[in-house]
Amino acid sequence: MTNLDDFGGGQHSTEVLVATTNDVPGYRVDRVIGEVFGLTVRSRNLGTQIGAGLKSLAGGELRGLTKTLVESRNQAMDRLIDQAKARGANAVLAMRFDVTEAGGNGTEICAYGTAAVISPVG
């Protein structure tokens, strides 16, 4: 049995709400602070790469690479949240991920969005 967090993820912080939407139902945006991002670059693991190469011959999910990408996205998200908190935000709106090759040596994962202060309507 695998841990749910091994192959998926999401927000773990309760201090900063992260949403992919531009607004949050039931909340108003009191102040927009600006862009924030969290970044990580991961090098390739030789053992994982060899295993992935062999697995790709037979087809199927590359579970080692999937797990590494999940860990990387979660790290980028944690850094995004730290940046938002440091700037006084309690929310990040319009959050997105960007994943690119980093000079052929690894993978760059960036979580970015708009830091804001929100409060409940009413």
Automatic annotation (TrEMBL):
InterPro entries: UPF0145_dom_sf (IPR035439), UPF0145_YbjQ-like (IPR002765). It comes from the Bacteria. Pfam families: YbjQ_1. Belongs to the UPF0145 family. This is UPF0145 protein ACEZCY_00135. It comes from Streptacidiphilus alkalitolerans. The lineage of its organism: Bacteria, Bacillati, Actinomycetota, Actinomycetes, Kitasatosporales.
